[in-house]
Amino acid sequence: MYSFVTLCCLVSSIALPSILNILAYPVSLKTSRRISNYIVKVLAPRLFAILNCYRHFHFFGYNETKENLPDQFLIISNHQSLLDIPCYMNFFRDKELRFVAKDILERHIPLVSEMLRAQEHCMIPRKGSPMEAMKIVEKFGKRVIERNQIPVLFPEGTRTRNGNVGKFYSAGFRKLNESANLPIVACALDGGYQIRDLRHIMSNLKNGCYRVKVMKVFDPPKTKDEEVYVLEESRRLIQEQLNQWRKLDTDAKY
């Protein structure tokens, strides 16, 4: 019964903004951006509130770790689910986040696709050449600097299936670091891999949780060796944090 109620609440919340944005985007970019801002600032937190109310699905944002962050920075994070995007929007709701994502998300995903296009997130062609992808990332880096936005990069390049941190690839990170030259903020998130598709949502949503935490702030790396260090250290810190969180979850069951 509660699963049905939750589904109805979620659908009713996202249906109208999704439809309006689909209709608005081809006609008025300005209107589409207003709807997209509503999705980010109002709807994302509301969706987590609905999940908490009806399914006891909790969002744990470790807000104390956001203290003393620089005004503008580049977030690098592990990647578990499409829901990582609204998760970070909820955690950094006072910032304008812009994500590096594959262009397949630009189409046919309710609530997400038009928002990503209208807000000019960095959409990487899935079948494009590496050179083309790097040019897009470079332009994106310059754009976020001009607009005082916060770029978000998932160096794994794809979502993990088991929740552990995969290899952090350096090409996109290096190009974005070169063009934006921002402090690097490593963030850990966990919980998304358990609800990565409809089957897992139905089985794991109840009493589940999403956690997000700032792990470390790095100065802008100036050399290739410094870039490698930032990626490796970030990956290590994130995996250690995931291990700690999962130990907490295991202990809570006994």
Report strand %: 5-15%
Largest sheet: 7 strands, mixed
Q: What would the principal axes of the Cα set say about the shape? A: globular
Strand line-up of the largest beta sheet: 1-7-6-2-5-3-4
The secondary structure category is alpha/beta
Mean pLDDT: 87
Structure commentary:
By secondary structure, the chain is α/β, with parallel strands linked by helices. It has 8 helices and 7 strands; from the N terminus they run ααββαβαβαβαβαβα. The chain has helices at 2-24, 29-55, 84-91, 113-118, 130-147, 171-180, 198-204, 224-252, and strands at 58-61, 74-77, 97-102, 122-124, 150-153, 184-190, 209-218. The protein has a 7-stranded mixed beta sheet with strand order 1-7-6-2-5-3-4, sandwiched between helices.
Short description:
It is built from 8 helices and 7 strands; from the N terminus they run ααββαβαβαβαβαβα. The chain is α/β, with parallel strands linked by helices and 254 residues long.
Q: Top keywords for this entry?
A:
8 helices, seven-stranded mixed beta sheet, alpha/beta
Write the layout of secondary structure elements.
Elements: H1 2-24, H2 29-55, E1 58-61, E2 74-77, H3 84-91, E3 97-102, H4 113-118, E4 122-124, H5 130-147, E5 150-153, H6 171-180, E6 184-190, H7 198-204, E7 209-218, H8 224-252
Helix pairs in contact: 1-2, 2-3, 5-6
